Amino acid sequence: MNTLLLQPTLKPFQWNHVPKSNPTTIIKNQINPPKSQSSAGKIKRLVLTKEGRTKFNISPDRDFYAYPRFVTHVDDNFIATLTDLYRKRLRSEFEVLDLMSSWVSHLPQEVKFKKVVGHGLNPQELAKNPRLDYFVVKDLNQDQEFEFENASFDAVLCTVSVQYLEQPEKVFAEVFRLLRPGGVFIVSFSNRLFYEKAIGAWREGTGFGRVQLVVQYFQCVEGFTEPEVVRKLGDGVKVDGSVFGWIKGLLGFVSGSDPFYAVIAYKNFKPIYE
């Protein structure tokens, strides 16, 4: 009987299936391993609840600010304190963004900054501001992103306006993006406000509570230095900004200078100037 011998079919070895490594790439990766993406500028947590962001007047802010108001919203003592703070914290070579600005920026008259850019909702007010090199009109409650490049400014200022931000976490993160390393963000406020346009968390707060709220805005964004608080409560009796205090102030039942509050933090680190 004939025996049939079967041999298995062997597939030729395919060398091209083995990935080729570039020795140069391997050495480079060993010396400089790929860096993980930085979390700086990211929002770590939300500070406000949905109720805390609500306003009595829910109409678009552009409608509310459609007509110019050529008045100052704080007294002379507040303005003098703020101007002196700017004098100490800002340098003439700075490029400055005046966030939520108006027809006056309260910058020291004797200092000529490299550039001052204004932002607000009323173009007539901004056009009258003599300190602005140019300005942009944007509703930060609708859109929190600017078209400026990363690290465009040495300082960002927000004067007596933080109480109207419905998305403060996103705005503070955007400010972080716009600041250069070591850049400063100065947020100042008093107890005055357009009550119907302030967010609920602000309306219901005291002076101390509002300071802590702004501190939390800074702390919720990765990369800001520990916020510094500046207070000057002024002379005389002042109300706390509640609805009852607002009514008393409107009727002229209280007197004294406006309390001054400022919360200040820097991007990444606080620089030391000689």
Automatic annotation (TrEMBL):
Record-level Gene Ontology MF annotations: S-adenosylmethionine-dependent methyltransferase activity
Biological processes, Gene Ontology terms: alkaloid metabolic process
Domain called Methyltransferase type: residue spans: 117-187
PANTHER family referenced in this protein's UniProt entry, alphabetically: OS04G0481300 PROTEIN, OSJNBB0011N17.9 PROTEIN
Protein name: Methyltransferase type 11 domain-containing protein
Originating organism: Centaurea solstitialis
